[in-house]
Design goal:
Layout: E1 2-7, H1 20-30, E2 34-37, H2 46-52, E3 59-62, E4 64-68, E5 71-76, H3 88-98, E6 101-104, H4 123-127, E7 137-142, H5 147-160, E8 164-167, E9 180-183, H6 190-199, E10 202-205
Parallel strand pairs: 1-2, 2-3, 6-7, 7-8
Antiparallel strand pairs: 1-9, 4-5, 5-6, 9-10
Length: 208
């Protein structure tokens, strides 16, 4: 199943220009099987998600993009709205208690880690990013970063032995599906998504 694991809609994510209805239409046009709503610090209500998907064959799932002091993290399986900035260690504790799954989002966007440029950073240095010790996977393909930054994320994931996910991080309709995650098995609900993420039965692709 082909699912975009990282999308934002307006007005829940104020930085997005995508209306939820437009997201549904474009995802269907691209032939996606579903997508995951990962708003910034906002968790959708299940009834609203059900209403959004009514009349479509799309599987619409919920996640969250949480800002931590060590970077942005996609959270799946945590039924809690988290406001304000917390540490990655605090988020990890919340996730473990709930059985949730954490994905480090766009970990090398801008290469601001260590205060050095991309040409000066090697894989060993990048792999020492402390936040990576507390996540279950790394977003190795993100539609809002440069190819070089995605490639760095992939190499670091390989070095650390962590699975890699893909998501568009769409804030505009024409970016939906830029990167997606292909699951080997059916994802019919959030429990199945969590199960397959933890099992690592997925790979990264593009729907465009």
């Amino acid at each position: 199943m082909r699912i975009d694991l990282h999308v934002h809609t307006w007005p829940r994510s104020q930085c997005s220009h995508i209306k939820p209805e437009a997201l549904v239409q474009e995802a269907a046009r691209l032939g996606l099987d579903g997508f995951c709503l990962t708003e910034h610090q906002v968790l959708w209500d299940p009834d609203e998600v059900k209403a959004l998907g009514q009349g479509t064959d799309l599987v619409i799932l919920r996640g969250n993009e949480i800002t931590t002091a060590q970077g942005d993290v996609l959270v799946f399986g945590l039924e809690k709205d988290i406001q304000g900035i917390m540490t990655i260690q605090e988020l990890k504790a919340e996730a473990e208690a709930a059985g949730a799954f954490l994905v480090m989002a766009h970990p090398f966007r801008g290469f601001k880690m260590f205060g050095i440029g991309p040409r000066d950073m090697n894989i060993d240095q990048a792999s020492r990013k402390k936040a990576l010790r507390y996540v279950d996977a790394i977003e190795i393909r993100n539609g809002n970063v440069r190819d070089q930054e995605n490639e760095m994320a992939e190499q670091v994931a390989i070095k650390l032995g962590l699975p890699g996910t893909g998501g568009s991080d769409a804030h505009h309709v024409d970016n939906i599906g830029a990167w997606v995650t292909d699951f080997e098995r059916e994802i019919e609900d959030e429990a199945a998504l969590l199960r397959e993420l933890k099992a690592g039965r997925f790979s990264v692709a593009s729907a465009r």
